[in-house]
Design goal:
Blueprint (H helix, E strand, L loop, with lengths): L1 E5 L4 H12 L3 E6 L11 E4 L18 E4 L5 H11 L8 E5 L36 H19 L4 E4 L3 E3 L7 H11 L2 E5 L5 E2 L1 E3 H14 L3 E3 L6 E2 H12 L5 E5 L1 H6 L3 E3 L4 E3 L15 H5 L7 H15 L11 H8 L6
Parallel strand pairs: 1-2, 1-4, 2-3, 4-5, 5-6, 6-11, 7-10, 8-13, 14-15
Antiparallel strand pairs: 9-12
Helix pairs in contact: 1-5, 2-3, 4-6, 4-9, 6-9
């Protein structure tokens, strides 16, 4: 199989490229090449998708499958469709990685792919992460999904909607924060929300599934999520696996956390994975269709150990995109408020 990965140097797209090369496929990565190198035996075609007309360099190339993980950039999606979508039996299978943020209802658990979506945001710009909201990010993904399905057709389009992607190279620092914090030990603030649902899919498992789907030309729309777990169980399992001997978990209520200025879910001054009341449906989608289609999972022990190893490799004292600094945590434990 000749596979085009739009990206292929880091994150999920990088893992897809590694997986496909490992299976002996002919892999081409279209990327700027600034985030890292493509895997050995893969070919890099330098492309900056922010540059108008940049994907024209792909004109004349033929692929059996395409994997696109474009984030917040409808123009990126449309431009490559214009060049490569094609028609007929030799047209490529097309995977587009969307997000569970496309769903309008973030409160109701157990939703599937037929649940209502947020309105499409028809904005071709590539917005910076700080400019994105759930609505603009989800709406851009909705518009991108529509563009893929309109141009490629439902018979060869695979739309996958992941939630939290765990595993090595987690740029959002969610699981990594907890692994690093528990390994450091001492009194550690956790959300007092043991029954909150949480889902994740390891990047290695998701990448393997996407390559298999390209090989088998699997089509359809799937929530690429793992089983619904309890947040308390996830944190306890991680603490038991990688926690220091003097680790003491200190639960704090939603009222105390929000009153102190702690943010939910991710980002600076946050407790990652914690969702406030009214948003827990975001992490409780129906996992069964994807599992039936072959999306596998792995143990929390593996996730915790991998997260800690990844944190150590990247630097335990580095600035993270999510979580509390030690000073912020001390402020909370002393009853103060974050500024």
């Amino acid at each position: 199989m000749r596979l085009l990965v739009l990206g292929g140097t880091t994150g999920l797209s990088g893992r897809v490229a590694v997986e496909a090369v490992g299976r002996g496929h002919d892999v081409v990565c279209a990327a700027r090449g600034r985030s890292g190198a493509v895997p050995d035996r893969a070919r890099l075609i330098p492309v900056d998708r922010d540059e108008p007309g940049a994907v024209a360099v792909l004109v004349g190339e033929r692929f059996d499958a395409v994997v696109d993980v474009a984030t917040g950039a409808l123009g990126w999606v449309r431009a490559v469709l214009d060049v490569l979508a094609g028609e007929g039996p030799d047209a490529p299978h097309w995977t587009f990685v969307s997000s569970v943020n496309v769903y309008a209802d973030v409160a109701t658990p157990g939703q599937g792919v037929d649940a209502p979506l947020v309105p499409a945001v028809d904005d071709p710009r590539h917005l910076a992460p700080e400019e994105l909201t759930i609505e603009t990010y989800g709406g851009t993904k909705v518009a991108s999904e529509q563009a893929v399905r309109d141009r490629v057709g439902d018979g060869r389009a695979l739309i996958v909607r992941p939630g939290i992607i765990s595993g090595p190279g987690d740029v959002m620092d969610r699981f990594g924060y907890w692994a690093a914090r528990f390994a450091r030990g001492g009194r550690t603030v956790i959300p007092d929300a043991p029954d909150q649902p949480i889902q994740h899919v390891d990047v290695r498992d998701l990448a393997a599934w996407l390559v298999t789907a390209a090989e088998t030309r699997t089509a359809g729309v799937f929530d690429a999520v793992g089983p619904v777990l309890r947040l308390g169980d996830v944190l306890s399992a991680m603490a038991a696996t990688v926690g220091a001997g003097d680790l003491e978990l200190v639960p704090m209520s939603e009222e105390a956390l929000t009153g102190a200025g702690v943010q939910p879910w991710g980002g600076p001054a946050s407790l990652p994975l914690w969702l406030p009341t009214g948003y827990t449906g975001l992490a409780a989608h129906d996992p069964e269709p994807a599992a039936a289609a072959g999306l596998a999972g792995r143990s929390l022990t593996d996730v915790a150990l991998t997260a800690l190893a990844d944190e150590r490799a990247r630097g335990m004292d580095r600035t993270r995109k999510a979580g509390l600094t030690l000073d912020e945590e001390r402020t909370l434990l002393d009853g103060g408020r974050l500024t």
